[in-house]
């Protein structure tokens, strides 16, 4: 594409292109050249909008974290509906979609990217926000008496994230864990606090 052509919302165009590269080729293939080629823009376009590739990646992750806030609102609204296990199973499935998994891999691999996004003492970006989302949901369920009043909700959230990440990240490309497999893990993690709510 000629460099003189005006691009509408070039950042979104580049983010969408990055998502496609991540889905098709994985995090190792995500380079500035791959993104601009996928977006069908000149190579210099990305660097006119971002100081360097890590700055682009940082905004890509931040964009994903913003989407997580929308998921958090929906999860909070689900407190008191269906079962706790149903809500958590759906949340973990959405949390570990292929793009989020690829971004987590990038965060593990790229120190500079991780350092740009990390809040002191908060843990790995994206997963730290996911922990906060699940913790807030479990607090709401605890307040409604659907899990034990002394439930350690932050520890439960960490357990769900760790187990969910292992289940989803270890799969062949294009495959997901069976619903029953994920549900069994969720049921096991929350079994004690669900059973003790009646005591």
How many strands in all?
A: 0
How far apart, in Å, are the first and last alpha carbons?
67 Å
Sheet of most strands: none
Query: From N to C, what is the helix and strand string?
Result: HHHHHHHHHH
Query: Mind telling me the C-alpha Rg?
Result: 19 Å
Stretches with pLDDT under 50, minimum 5 residues = 1-7
What count of domains describes the coordinates? 2
The oligomeric state is single chain
Outline, from the CA principal axes? elongated
What class do helices, strands and sheet pairing give?
A: mainly alpha
Annotation field: number of helices: 10
- The percent range for strand residues is under 5%
Q: According to CATH, what is the class of the largest domain?
A: Mainly Alpha
**CATH third-tier fold name of the largest domain:** Tetracycline Repressor, domain 2
Q: Helical percent range?
A: 55-70%
Instruction: Write down the overall mean pLDDT.
Output: 90
CATH architecture of the largest domain: Orthogonal Bundle
